[in-house]
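Letters spell out the chain; the tokens describe the backbone. To illustrate:

===
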Amino acid sequence: MRTICFILSSIQSIHSIKRIDEFVEQGYDVKVFGFNREDSPQTSYDRFDIEIIGTFSSEMPYHKRLPLLWKGIRKAKSKTRGLNCLWYYFGLDVALLGRLINISKPYIYEEADLTYTYINNSLLKYIFRILDKNTIKKSFKTVLTSDGFVWFLFGNKHPKNVSIITNRLLKSTLSVPHETKHVLDMEHLVFGFLGGARFESVYYFIKTVVKHFPQHQVVVYGTIDEKFSERYAVLEKYDNFAFYGRFSNPTELPKIYAGIDLVISTYDICYDNVKHAEPNKLYEAVYFETPIIVTEGTFLASKVAKYGIGYAVDALDEKAIVQFIEGLTKTSLNECMTNCRKIDKMRCINDNQTFFDELKTLMVSL
């Protein structure tokens, strides 16, 4: 049986750690290499070892990072001599260099973010998009985390070697007791944000609610990006804003969602990565029967509209936000919650057995 040899662009990536855990659960032998981001908090992993093959700051420019990536991946190659490897690359930068170093070697490619869409140079962005499509087409198997990414890259043509594995809730969520949702009070709505507060549109939406609707409340759980820390600190002076910091996932999710009426997921759309992403807030909202607020014009907004489970708004338009909140009714909120209940809860849980069954069949041909 082949050993799955993973290369992580960041050992702090919780997403990557979860994926490797799944391979371990499926009985695969794994060898894991990764790059340490010295300015990022450490992530725990106890089911496998990670050999660090390079260290750099997340702020290091890519042209300075490339030699470190090249050296690290070459080191990983030398460490696996004698192993029958199926390489697994997380991220386009690692995949491109991995393909060059391990020429003609089969690989699985996973892309959770279209990182090159943040490049300001249109020509460079176009080139990386072509390279991304080629990396997918030449892969033994590719994992994308959003149907929106497939549409962005290939339109209606879905490559046969691509599997969509969205960011759903942990299986352990099923064992956490549900909590009764608080009574809906239209005179005191509670808006909640869970995760990393790093988008301008999230901050602007929250600020607008806090300043224009003192009768309502906004609660934030998670972390606040350093560049927004001062602005959120100003909001803490308002009685209707509260920041509670980090939370335990999934054990604290039922309690948090039981105490909020709407969940905020108004991510920026100025970059294609965010515009086409499918964040796990969609599945949390459905699972905990909480209407979701998203940014209009996104792939997420189309899904929310399809299932009738929330609202889309221009999160950078103060007037639009005010009109949206003033137009909320108990009937529409209850209708969204009812539509959430209609969706099978198991569709919200991370269960990728179909992917692993398919992979097992395909690996026979290697």
